[in-house]
């Protein structure tokens, strides 16, 4: 299976959040890789990952980071491959720091910014799937089925605990 999506994150501590994206991609049969690439701690790794991304055939990059979350924006500056940003929830500021660090990109270098935390990571996986499905009808059918199954799982009425 080809690796279409790169999941990158600033730290091992981001993985419990970012694996929600990986789970969605796995469920939908999308090839991905997961790497630790830190804007601050491994800037050379960030540089080479971004430089090689398009040539390696990556079609979407999902980048998660917390606090001073510069990874998604710096990656968007280094590659034309679309970058989806996931703000990691932080202890100090609940992830609002991450969100603000990721979302306010200057004109020219967009990052598609998701919600803070695990819902954002899962939605990043679904967003990547939607982008890939534009040119992959079989994946589109799997994504439609995934969405229908989610809708079908929602009860009509609330239940007591
Ligand atoms: C960021 O700093 C990472 O994305 C992570 O969310 C945050 C804290 O990293 P650790 O101190 O847990 O390694 O670069």
From TrEMBL:
It comes from the Bacteria. This is N5-carboxyaminoimidazole ribonucleotide mutase. SMART domains: AIRC. Belongs to the AIR carboxylase family. Class I subfamily. The gene is purE. Gene3D superfamilies: 3.40.50.1970. It comes from Celeribacter indicus. GO terms for molecular function: 5-(carboxyamino)imidazole ribonucleotide mutase activity. Substrate binds at residues 11, 14, 41. Catalyzes the conversion of N5-carboxyaminoimidazole ribonucleotide (N5-CAIR) to 4-carboxy-5-aminoimidazole ribonucleotide (CAIR). It catalyses: 5-carboxyamino-1-(5-phospho-D-ribosyl)imidazole + H(+) = 5-amino-1-(5-phospho-D-ribosyl)imidazole-4-carboxylate.
